[in-house]
Structures are given as structure tokens and as C-alpha cells.
Amino acid sequence: MSEEKKQINLNIDNGNDFFAHEMSINFSPTQFIFDYRSLTPRIDPRSREAPVLFLKHNVIMVDPFHAKRILEILKTTIDDYEKQFGKIEMPKALKEHEKKAKKAIENKTSKKEAMPNYFG
Questions:
Q1: Is the pLDDT confidence value at 67 over 60?
Q2: Who's near 15: CB < 8 A, 6+ residues apart?
Q3: Mean pLDDT of the residues in the chain
């Protein structure tokens, strides 16, 4: 018998790069759902129409065992990062924004005004 060699062509789709501004995690009895969201204002200064918010979702679903593995790997990776580059801290601009938002709420300003404004 002669051995026949078969060739396999493989195309890999690496997906699209995605920057997540927000994330939520939910679960059911059989899976964890990681919902990554990107919210981007689309404003055309020449247009008289209202600004448009473009919301994009990328959802990843894993079983509970793999969710726990993600937690372990993320902790190890963050520990390694901080050993090499120093402690990860909240950016100064974000700290200042939170202070202003809390102060506005304390001064009985509506929560709507204290929330980030995505309309520019």
C-alpha cells in the first residue's frame, strides 16, 4: 500500500480589533456571557441632524469552568504586568471626573448632568 499525502488549505480569520469602553458579565446555569461594548459618537458638523451614537457589541460565551480559568489567567497576567511596569492605577483625569460627578450629586444636581456626555 502506498501512503497518500493529502494537503489541507487552512484560512484563519483573526476577527476584528475591538476597543471596549464598557463590559458586563451575566450568567445562566450553563454559561457565562461576557458582553463587551463600544460606544462611539458619529458627529458630522455639516449635518443639521442630531448626533448619532454607534453602539457595537462583541459577546463571548463560555462555560463556568472556562470562566474560572479566564479569572486565573487574567490575575496572573495582571500580576506579571504590574511586576514589570508598576501598579495599575486609575488615570488622574478619571479620578478628577469622579470627584466632580460626586460633588455635583452632593450639591443636588441631577444625576443626568453628572453622567458622561457622549454628544461632544
A1: yes
A2: none
A3: 85
Q: Specify the pTM.
A: 0.63
Residue 16: enclosing H or E segment and its boundaries? none
Grid cell of 94 as nine digits: 478619571
What pLDDT is attached to residue 116? 57
pLDDT tier at 39, thresholds 50, 70, 90:
confident
User: Phi/psi class of residue 100: alpha, beta or left (left: φ > 0; alpha: ψ in -120 to 50)?
Assistant: alpha
Helices (H) and strands (E) in the chain, counts: 3, 3
Retrieve residue 49's grid coordinates: 441632524
C-alpha cell at 38: 463600544
The whole-angstrom separation of Cα 24 and Cα 35 is 5
CB 62 within 8 A of CB 70: yes
Contact call for residues 59 and 33 (beta carbons, < 8 A): yes
Are 68 and 32 a contacting pair, CB within 8 Å? no
